[in-house]
Write a structure and sequence with these properties.
With 196 residues, the chain is mostly helical. Helix content is 72%, strand content 0%. The protein is built from ten helices and no strands. Helix 9 (147-166) runs antiparallel to helix 10. It starts with a helix and ends with a helix. The relative contact order is 0.11. The mean pLDDT is 96.
């Protein structure tokens, strides 16, 4: 396997673009090469197969979609109340909106894992790791609500992100006077997260 880390990273990011735009069926080494602007056959020199490319895309998306540690540190100086949890949810929405391609690629990976048991285990472990990390963060930060609140918040935000990034018009006007997505983020937090 070729060892140029910059080229490998560019190929993985090209894979994210292909996955988001064309879906898992369009994720071929030839499509990745074309997206990266490299000679045909380059991706096959960097990845042993499509499954390895998907696993590396998964790892890359966790970096691309992760919160900024400085932003988190600054927010943690605030009172540990519902307002802070709401701010974290707004940050999540903003990150997913800024990197819509990355988030859509992550959704495609979920679908691909549902079709291929050999990938399901790795992706399940990855996504479950994210949920466990969110629960631990919530506990460690002393935010209101317990594991159940975090789990329900996770599910609600996952649904909002899915609709907002794929079919945003579905949510327009569903709650009169509530903006999409920010107003819905507020409503989710008000409904799920206790005051303190």
């Amino acid at each position: 396997m070729a060892g140029n880390p910059e080229r490998r990273a560019a190929l993985v990011d090209a894979g994210v673009e292909v996955l988001a735009r064309q879906g898992a069926r369009g994720l071929t080494f030839r499509a990745v090469d074309a997206e990266a602007g490299v000679p045909v056959g380059t991706a096959s020199n960097y990845f042993t197969g499509r499954d390895e490319l998907l696993r590396q895309i998964d790892a890359r998306l966790h970096v691309r979609l992760a919160p900024d540690p400085e932003v988190i540190a600054g927010l943690l100086a605030r009172p540990k109340d519902r307002s802070l949890v709401t701010t974290f949810m707004h940050d999540l929405m903003a990150r997913a909106t800024r990197d819509r391609t990355g988030y859509l690629a992550m959704l495609e990976m979920r679908l691909e894992a549902s079709r291929h048991p050999e990938l399901r285990s790795a992706f399940t472990k990855s996504v479950r790791g994210d949920l466990d990390e969110a629960i631990e963060f919530h506990r460690g930060a002393g935010l209101p609500g317990g594991d159940e609140v975090v789990t329900v918040l996770y599910l609600a935000m996952l649904g909002l992100l899915l609709e907002h990034l794929t079919l945003p018009d579905v949510l327009e006007g569903v709650l009169p006077g509530v903006g999409v997505p920010d107003g819905l983020v507020e409503r989710i937090a008000e409904t799920i997260v206790p005051e303190k």
